[in-house]
Amino acid sequence: MFNRLDHVGIVVSDIDATLKTYCEQLGFKLLERTEIAEQKVVAAFLDGGNSTIELISPTDTESGTAKYLANRGEGTHHVAYEVDDIIAALAELKAQGVRLIDETPRQGVHGLVAFVHPKATHGMMIELLQKGHHKGQ
Amino acid sequence: MFNRLDHVGIVVSDIDATLKTYCEQLGFKLLERTEIAEQKVVAAFLDGGNSTIELISPTDTESGTAKYLANRGEGTHHVAYEVDDIIAALAELKAQGVRLIDETPRQGVHGLVAFVHPKATHGMMIELLQKGHHKGQ
Question: The pTM is what?
Answer without folding.
Answer: 0.91
